[in-house]
Each structure stands twice: as C-alpha cells, then as structure tokens.
Write a structure and sequence with these properties.
alpha+beta, 3-stranded antiparallel beta sheet, 3 helices
C-alpha cells in the first residue's frame, strides 16, 4: 500500500509539472501570435504608404517613378499604431519596435511583444507573475519585374507574380493604381 501511495504521488506531481509546461507553452504561443500580427501590421501599413508615394510620383510626372517598385524604403508613420492595435487584439502589448530592418535586402519591421496575461498558478514557484515574450520580423518584397529597357514616358506592362499590370504615366489616374498587395508582398521573415 505505501508503494502505491508513493507512485500515485509521483504520477500526480508529474502530471501537474506537465500541466505547468503546457501553460507556459500556451502563453509563449500566444505571445508569438501577437508578435507575428504586430510585425505584419507594421509592414502592411508601410506598404500602404509606399503606394501613396508611388501615386504621388506618377502624378508629379517624376521620371524615376518606376524606382518605387524596386526601392522599398519603409517610413511607415502609422506602423506603430498598427502594431499596437494588432498586439492588443491578441491580448499583448508592444515592448519595442516596430523598428525598420532589412532581411536579405528586403526592408521590413521587427517587434518585441509581451502578453498582458501571466502563465498562471502552477506547482512551479514564480510562474504566477511571468509573462510570455516573443519577437517577429515582417518584410516587404516587390512582386513586379521591371523591364530593363522600359521607357518611363510610354505605357508600360509589368509582370507581378504572373499577373500583367498596365501603367501609362502620361494618362494616369490615382484610382487606376492596383492594390498594394498586387505590387508588394508582406511576409514573416522569422
């Protein structure tokens, strides 16, 4: 009988320990989801501002308007607000960032987040006040191939991930611009 009680106690302790690790893993996954969402939101916000810059360059008749499709220089003024919004939607808050970064020559943003909730009470002392933290990076990639012999004053066909888009810089209307997602992809880098 004493061996039975002793083995039952060990099994219960092991079960509670596994439950504590499961709680920590769940909190960590929640933090990673919040970090991913915040980084993607920041990059998508900057992508939208890139489209505004492209539209302005076309309206002004800049000869280097096509550079907007290759030159991704995110200056997302709303990137922080977008990251904060998505982190909060995932019950977390942004610790640092979004900060501009580059991954494989693609510009983007990284963020660090922390959950608003703790791991919770477990048999492991000290976990009741621990919050999960996570980091994520999202990048903006151009989707379009720009012809090397392109005449920037003539109508131009661009191939963007197999989709053909027509641009006529001389007869341009801002409403003719394709969606930002047609020209630039946003994805997680890590």
């Amino acid at each position: 009988m004493p061996i039975y009680i002793w083995l039952t106690g060990i099994l219960l302790f092991a079960a509670f320990a596994f439950f504590a690790f499961a709680q920590a893993a769940s909190a960590r996954n929640g933090a990673q989801s919040a970090a991913d969402a915040a980084a993607l939101a920041a990059a998508q916000s900057a992508r939208g501002e890139l489209m505004l810059g492209l539209g302005d360059a076309l309206e002004r008749g800049d000869e280097d308007w096509l550079d907007w499709l290759d030159r991704i220089d995110p200056k997302g003024t709303d990137a922080r607000a977008a990251a904060d919004r998505l982190a909060a939607a995932n019950d977390a808050h942004v610790l640092s960032g979004p900060t501009e970064t580059a991954v494989n020559d693609h510009a983007g943003y990284w963020v660090d987040v922390e959950t608003n909730y703790t791991v919770g009470d477990t048999i492991i002392p000290g976990t009741e006040n621990k919050r999960a933290k996570a980091h994520a990076t999202a990048v903006i990639q151009p989707r379009c191939d720009v012809p090397l012999d392109a005449d920037l004053k003539k109508p131009l066909q661009l191939t963007c991930d197999g989709k053909t888009l027509d641009f006529d810089p001389e007869d341009f209307d801002l409403d003719d611009l394709p969606d930002a997602s047609d020209l630039f992809a946003v994805r997680l880098a890590d």
